[in-house]
Specification:
Largest sheet: 5 strands, antiparallel
Number of domains: 2
CATH superfamily of the largest domain: Regulatory protein AraC
CATH architecture of the largest domain: Sandwich
Strand content: 15-25%
Low-confidence stretches: none
Shape: globular
Number of strands: 10
Structural class: alpha+beta
Radius of gyration: 20 Å
Strand order of the largest sheet: 2-9-4-7-10
């Protein structure tokens, strides 16, 4: 069985309130200052943005596989499990930053929950752009790259401002490109984002729609109505899907038993949780672990 999944933090040399931009060409990252090696599925405690100039390879994010297209941007939220498999003609950039860096030292990290591609389990964290729009993204990337290279007094504030512009520009493109853009202009979209943020922060211990409704000063019926309108799912389905995702992560990337996983997710009856897991996935927890580990073993053998 694979070792438990690794979780990487920002390097000590960069500090906790940090930003860094790396250019990558070819299959591997040849930069000794990069936070970690990337030959196995892993996750971060920081945000990462992958900018793909030349599409070559695939990107696995939380059990979903996405082809890497040229002129695209992929967004990774802390805690997401992912692996990028690059080909020889790959060219792109990796941008990493801590939530403290983005929050402008005001501890308003909730700003990151207002962006549709971060901290949002119901929207795709990927932007495949037209070349004309991608040029705008690259203009900002190149400006950040120059500022990183010629670091001087004030560079930190300049990079933070560039990052803010970059993310707002990506949000603008995201709203324009996706068919659900009208939903993003819905007056209840922000409330549903708040609900998603609460689920991400509390799902292990808070399972009931009523509890989230209380936190948002709504009735459960109204919360379900707004969540269903924006996402297409009920509030209860979103809570359950987040629990199932976490169970999958534990099953594949740790050696916790089914019973231990159940307790980690605050289910006192492991057999009850196993029934829920099978109903949602079609497999028992043990079957899911076996099937996914066999897939991972085949993948590892191909890339030895």
């Amino acid at each position: 069985m694979p070792d438990p999944i690794k979780t990487y933090e920002m390097p000590d040399s960069l500090g906790q309130q940090s930003f860094q931009l790396y250019e990558v060409q070819g299959k591997s990252i040849n930069n000794s200052s990069y936070p970690h090696s990337t030959d196995r599925p892993h996750r971060h405690k920081y945000y990462e943005i992958c900018v793909f100039v030349n599409g070559a390879g695939r990107h696995e994010i939380d059990f979903s596989t996405h082809s890497i297209h040229s002129c695209s941007v992929h967004f990774l939220t802390p805690g997401q499990v992912h692996l990028i498999s690059r080909e020889e003609d790959y060219h792109g950039y990796l941008m990493v930053f801590s939530k403290e860096f983005y929050a402008l030292d005001t501890f308003h990290e909730d700003l990151l929950y207002q962006l549709p591609f971060f901290n949002n389990p119901t929207l795709l964290p990927i932007l495949n752009l037209r070349s004309r729009d991608f040029e705008e993204i690259m203009y900002l990337i190149e400006a950040m790259q120059r500022e990183c290279k010629f670091s001087s007094e004030g560079s930190r504030e300049i990079l933070r401002s560039y990052l803010q512009i970059f993310l707002v520009k990506c949000k603008q493109f995201y709203i324009y490109y996706f068919a659900e853009k009208k939903k993003m202009h819905d007056p209840h979209f922000s409330l549903v984002q708040q609900f998603n943020a609460l689920v991400e922060q509390r799902f292990k211990n808070v399972h009931q729609v009523q509890d989230y409704a209380d936190l948002l000063a709504l009735s459960p019926a109204m919360l379900n109505k707004y969540v269903k309108k924006i996402t297409g799912f009920t509030a209860g389905e979103i809570i359950m899907d987040r629990l199932i995702l976490q169970a999958k992560r534990y099953l594949i990337y740790t050696d916790l038993s089914n019973k231990e996983i159940s307790y980690q997710l605050n289910y006192e009856d492991p057999s009850y949780f196993s029934r829920i897991f099978k109903k949602k996935t079609g497999l028992s927890p043990s079957e899911f672990r076996r099937v996914e580990n066999e897939k991972y073993q085949l993948y590892s053998e191909k890339h030895l």
